[in-house]
């Protein structure tokens, strides 16, 4: 499975990184360009710890309302912020609200990474609720959605990792999970993935 974290980096991201390191789990972070500003040290730490970094747009605007040039501008500005802090340009994009169409896919020019397990952590704001919501949905090749901007979400991750591991699953970044499922291949631009079985 792949654990993914949206909308950061934020004030709880460093704490999350410590937990992931203790548990020896590599995750994928879909960051907002505007949150990279002021969180440069956290961005470098995410990268140095071996996590994957994807784009989640500059400011979480719905891409359905944007023109082609508006889409490209959001993508380019965010790419630059990520590149300037980590040295790496993201190859994957998670559209804000999961909202995309053919123009978004084409103009973002990255793989589009959705999710197959929705924790509803933004709504639950409760560790036990997050765990039960997530455990009901877990499956082989899952992409699990969390948000590292909520404290209860971060508090959920250590016990959640233990619960999921107890069922025999392991955690990889989206990129590595894809490579494991698909003979070492890489995700391609414009490819849309919900899970490894819907990719
Ligand atoms: Ni988001």
Short description:
The chain is an alpha/beta fold and 199 residues long. The protein contains nine helices and eight strands. 44% of the residues lie in helices and 14% in strands.
What does the model show?
This protein is of the alpha/beta class. The chain is 44% helix and 14% strand. It has helices at 13-23, 33-36, 40-48, 68-86, 102-108, 121-124, 127-135, 151-166, 174-181; strands at 2-6, 28-31, 52-55, 92-93, 111-113, 117-118, 143-147, 192-193. The strands form two sheets. It has a five-stranded parallel sheet with strand order 3-2-1-7-6. Strands 4-5-8 form a three-stranded parallel sheet, with no helix packed on it. Strand 1, helix 1 and strand 2 (28-31) form a beta-alpha-beta unit. It is globular, with a radius of gyration of 16 Å. The mean pLDDT is 98. Bound molecules: nickel (II) ion (NI). Nickel (II) ion (NI) binds next to loops.
Key features?
8 strands; alpha/beta; 9 helices; 14% strand; 199 residues; 5-stranded parallel sheet; single chain; 44% helix; 3-stranded parallel sheet; binds nickel (II) ion
* Lateral strand order in the biggest sheet: 3-2-1-7-6
Q: Per DSSP, what share of the residues sits in E-state strands of 2 or more residues? A: 5-15%
Mean pLDDT: 98
Give the uncertain stretches in residue-range form: none
Tell me how many strands there are. 8
Assembly context of the chains? single chain
Q: What separation lies between the terminal Cα atoms?
A: 14 Å
Tally of helical runs: 9
**Judging from the principal axes of the Cα atoms, what is the shape?**
globular
- SSE pattern: EHEHHEHEHEEHHEHHE
Nearest-angstrom radius of gyration?
A: 16 Å
User: Percent of residues in helical segments?
Assistant: 40-55%
Bound ligands, each once: nickel (II) ion
The major beta sheet can be summarized as: 5 strands, parallel
The structural class is alpha/beta
């Amino acid at each position: 499975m792949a654990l993914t974290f949206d909308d950061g980096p934020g004030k709880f991201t460093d704490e999350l990184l410590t937990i992931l390191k203790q548990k020896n789990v590599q995750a994928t972070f879909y960051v907002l360009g505007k949150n990279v500003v002021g969180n440069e040290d956290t961005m470098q730490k995410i990268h140095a710890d071996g996590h994957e970094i994807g784009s989640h747009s500059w400011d979480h605007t719905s891409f359905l309302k944007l023109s082609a040039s508006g889409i490209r501008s959001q993508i380019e500005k965010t790419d630059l912020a990520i590149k300037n802090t980590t040295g790496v340009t993201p190859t994957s994009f998670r559209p804000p609200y999961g909202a995309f169409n053919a123009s978004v896919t084409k103009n973002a020019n990255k793989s589009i990474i959705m999710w197959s397990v929705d924790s509803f952590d933004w709504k639950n704001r409760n560790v036990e609720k997050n765990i039960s919501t997530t455990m009901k949905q877990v499956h082989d090749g899952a992409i699990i959605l969390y948000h590292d901007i909520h404290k209860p979400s971060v508090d959920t991750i250590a016990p959640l990792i233990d619960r999921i591991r107890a069922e025999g699953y392991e955690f990889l970044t989206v990129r590595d999970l894809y490579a494991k499922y698909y003979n070492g291949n890489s995700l391609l631009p414009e490819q849309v993935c919900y899970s490894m079985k819907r990719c």
